[in-house]
Structure formats: structure tokens, C-alpha cells
């Protein structure tokens, strides 16, 4: 029988560990990586002064954010105003439950291998939309409301191609559980990126849009609407939105590795190292795209999702089905 | 056992909210509080805010979320089929093709009727 | 006390009556739609509970719950389309003000 | 024993959120508290070992329908809606009717002897749901796609401005 108190204890420890891991790796290190890579691409240096090679820059930022005052504008719906960043941060964290990091001997390093892993992951991605709408609405500010609506309609339109890419992978692997999918992929050449290349492209494009990253970050673009849905948020609440966004970005990169690049499988290095290499490769791809492509206008952006990605996803599912059944 | 998996999910939600709220609590404890009316006005790039924020827009936002709901429902029917269609042979594939073609008609209709236009 | 079928039925009865209360007493058409969604959810809980306790061999209850979720999505879509077009023509979403048959 | 505790916590979350949905004056607050209500119901489905339906509930109800409702509220609230009286004059009547129905339902649930079965559900429901959909529920499956198509076309015709 399941020893419940032990399981609860393990769950608490794992949750605390995962949250700190995400706060440090995804948020702090991610932001630093972004600024460093941005600098390198634009042939400038990026943060350099705090700590060796600027490594402690985001740590200093976090400590600064912890001391900044929370300004709550007048006539704001305080309850929703405060819970919106929590929703986005927790949704970003919870999508990490189903991601397998690697194997230690026989055990797979995954928090819990849910057997509807992909559906759970898609569900958590759709929770972020609720947080963004709540934040946009409760800030009682025309710009944040508009930014919230535009960002929500963008994320909503890109959830469908994301779902279709997940379905294509589920068809190939025959299971919804992420660990099963990684085991279904062969070694280096057997990974799904080759057999499911269109689904891989759709997944990457939809993931970039789902996380509101350039070239799809119109709703919070500097040139557009002040600061989109979080223009009223200051200090730590703003940092929570950022934490949720970066955690979601890293989760998308980790999911792309798990589904398409063969997860932790690789010839020589230990599995965990392989997983991190592939994940950071995809993160680098996201960042590289950010600093090279111009921003899409909102109607081009929505047309791309509805008129290109969605039909392509549907047709690709039919092709995969045909290929597998015959 | 299935329940243990979802116990982890529940504990993750609770601990995640607690730690995020903890960080907000630290700020509430640490941060200075100097409160005066001008600071609390909503941010309008310096202009004094006028009118209601809830300016209502036209119907295109609704149409996008409507088409999203219908196709989200379609995607959930794809998940169970995707797992088992391999063992079920051809007719399962053909029945799903009919399903997808019918809904593709819906997408074409929405496309031609301008429900997907942003103008 | 073991978790039995009756617990789930009582919970769904409570949810159903709360949803019915919302439908009967709310003025805003969207709030009425929310009440209907709650009532549909209550029915879904019953379906899935019966499927587990009374007829566990075939998953008919859960499949029926999935179809009910689909219909709830369609109903919400069409209902809100009506609310949108009523709002555009009558400038109001309060149901007791929408009492003229031809706008 | 643990399941009963989990059931009590989950139904408490659901009922509190439902009371906020039903009773709140601010329409957006009641729309947003639909989300914890639906997530509580997802927990109930998990207790009933309906894992796939729980995943779908999160995806569709909490993710799609609530977003649709929020969009419509934001499009139809011209800022003054929040101060309008949200409740019509039938409150006492509505309360009595809903309370009576609830009491009647609970009474019938408690008294009828439910034919408890001894079998147990398969742990992984997603694949069996897929098989059942494709084998003996094939008609339901195809008709649902027609229903979706009709709902989509109907909603677009109603909502779109007549050019």
C-alpha cells in the first residue's frame, strides 16, 4: 500500500526543490543568459560588472526587486491584482511535473510520470492565459486591459497548433506519458525530430508564441502599449510574472527536448547531461530567434496561427495517420 | 497508483503558491511604504487618466475565442484516438478523417466569413 | 467512514442547486450562462461517480461526461454569441431589460 | 481515510468558489472564481479515477470556456456594469426553489439503495476511452463533430455584424 505520510513529505521536498531550481535556473540564470547572448549577438558585452563576468547580475536584480515598494493603484481590484502573478508563476512551475530529466540507474528522474502527461502540460499552458487576463483586467488601466486581451488572444490562438503537435507525437509514440514518449524514441537517429519534422517546427513556433517571446511579443512590446498587461505591476509582482514566463519558456524547451530530440538519450555522456545540453540548445534557439527576427504585427501573427499552423497541423496529423496505418 | 501522482500535483500547487506568496510577503515586510495620492494614479504615460478603462471593443476578440473553444474541443477528441488508432486498423483512421474533414469545413467557413480577420 | 457514492451525489446536488439559484436570480446574461455551466458540471460529477461505483466495467459514464463537456462548450459559444449580438443591438446584457421581441 | 480527507478539501474548494461565482456582485470576480471551482471538480474526477476526464476538464472548462466568458464580459462591460444591481427581485423565491430542489435531491440520494458493483475501473482510462470511441461509440463521435460544426457556424452568424 502507498505510505501516504512519506509520499506527502517527498512531494513537499520535491516541490520546494523544483521551485528554487526554477527560480534560480529559469528566472535568474535565464535572464542573465538572455542578456549575455543578446549582447554577444549584437557584438556588445552584456552585464559585466557584478560578480565574475557579470554572473551575479540577476542575483543583484532579485535582491533589488525584493526591496522595491509595491504600488497598488487606486480603484484596483486588489484580490485579483495580487493573485494574477501567482497564477502565472504557479502555472509555469507546475508544467515541470511531467518533464523527465534523465535516468539514475534504473529510476527515471521525473517528479511524477502522469499517464496523461501531454494533456496536463497543455492544461497548464492554458492556465497562464487566465492569469494574464486577470492581471490585465484588475489593473484598471486601458493599456494593461488592451495588452491583456491582445496577449490572451495571441496565446489562445497558438494553443491549438501546440495541441496538434502534441497529438502528432502521441500518435507516433502511442502514449501520452512523457517518459513513454522518450522511451519510444530510438537512439540519436531514432528521435522524433526527423520523422515528425513538421510537428517539431509547429511546436517550436507555437511555443515561442505561447511564451510571448519575440517575434511574437507584440502585446508587451515597448513600441506598442506601454508595458502590456503588467504595466501597473511593480517590484516583486512583476518579477513573479517574469518568473512564470521564463519557467514556461524553459518548460517548453524541456518539452521540445523530451518530445522531439530524444530526451535524455545520447551515446556517451550521462543521460542528465544530454538532457541539459539539448534543453539549453533549444533555449539558445529561442534567444537567438529573439535577437534576429523583427516583431510581427498582431494580424500577421494571428493569421500565421489560424491560416498556416492550424491547417498544417491538421493535414500533418492525417499524413502521419496514413503513414502509420498503411 | 494514479492517486499518488495527483497528490504530487496538488502538493506542487500548494507549495508553489506558498513560495510565491512568501516572496510577496518578504517584499511586504521589507519594502518601504510611502503612500501619497499621485503615486497611486494609474499609469497613463504622464497624462491624468480619464474615462473608464473598460472601453469596449468590437466583436473580433469574441470570434477568436469562440473558434478557439470549438477547435480546443476538437483537439481533445484527437488525444484518445492518437493513442489507440495504431491497434484499431484502417477504419479508425477513416472515421477520424471524416471527423477532421467536417471540422476543417468549419475552419474554412470561419475563414471565408471573416471571423479570423483582424481588420 | 469510507468515501462512497453518496458523498459525490450530495456534492453534485449542492452544486446543481447553487447553479439553479444563479440562473434564477442573476440579471446579467453571462452570469446566467455561468450558472448553467455549474449545473452541467454537477451532472458530470454524477455521471462519473455512477460510472465508478455502479457500472465500472465499461467507461460509458466518462464518455458521456466528455460529450456533455463538448455540448457545454458549444452551448457557451452560441449563448455568448446571442449575448454579444443582444449587447450590440440593445446596449444591455441585463435580461430583465431585454423584453422586446423584435429589436 | 486519506481519500475522504482529500474529498472534503476538494469539495470545500469547489463549494466556496461556487458560492463566490453565484453570489459575487462584481461580475468579473465571479467569472474568475469559476476557475477554482472547475479545478476543484478536476480533483473530484481524479478521486473517481477518471483521469482523462480530469485532464479534459482543465483544458476545456478552466482553459477555454472561462476565457470565452471573460472575453465576453470584458467586451460587454462598459465600466458601469460593476455598480449595477446584479441580482433581480426573485432572490427569496430563487433561494427557496433552489434549496427545495437541493434538499429533495439529497433526500432521494440518501434513501435509494444504489446497486453497488464490485468491479473496478481500469487504471489508465485514456486508451480505453479511445477504443470505446472508435468501436461501439462511433456514431456519437461523428455526430459530435457535426454538432461542433453547427455550433461554430451558428455562433459566427449570430455574432458577426451584418455587413
List keywords for this structure.
heterotetramer, B: 119 residues, mainly alpha, C: 103 residues, Helix Hairpins, elongated
Task: Please give a structural write-up.
- The complex is a heterotetramer of chains A (326), B (119), C (103) and D (163).
- With 326 residues, chain A is an all-alpha fold.
- Chain A has one domain.
- In chain A, α1 packs across α10 and α5 packs antiparallel against α8 (197-210).
- In chain A, a hairpin with a 2-residue loop joins β1 (102-104) and β2.
- Chain A has a two-stranded antiparallel ribbon.
- Chain A has eleven helices and two strands, in the order αααββαααααααα.
- Chain B has 119 residues and is mainly α.
- Chain B has one domain: NADH:ubiquinone/plastoquinone oxidoreductase, chain 3 (Methane Monooxygenase Hydroxylase, Chain G, domain 1).
- The model of chain B is unreliable at 50-56 (pLDDT under 50).
- By secondary structure, chain D is an all-alpha fold.
- Chain D folds into two domains: 1-83, Up-down Bundle (Four Helix Bundle (Hemerythrin (Met), subunit A)), CATH 1.20.120; 124-163.
- Chain D is built from seven helices and no strands.
- Chain D has helices at 2-23, 27-32, 34-47, 51-76, 91-111, 125-134, 138-159.
- Chain D starts with a helix and ends with a helix.
- The model of chain D has no long low-confidence stretch (mean pLDDT 87).
- The chains are: A mainly alpha (326), B mainly alpha (119), C mainly alpha (103), D mainly alpha (163).
- The A-D interface holds A 4, 77, 79-80, 114-116, 119-120, 122-123, 126-127, 129-130, 133-134, 137-138, 145, 149, 152-153, 156, 159, 176 and D 2, 26, 28-29, 32, 35, 51-52, 55-56, 58-59, 62-64, 66-67, 70-71, 74, 124, 126.
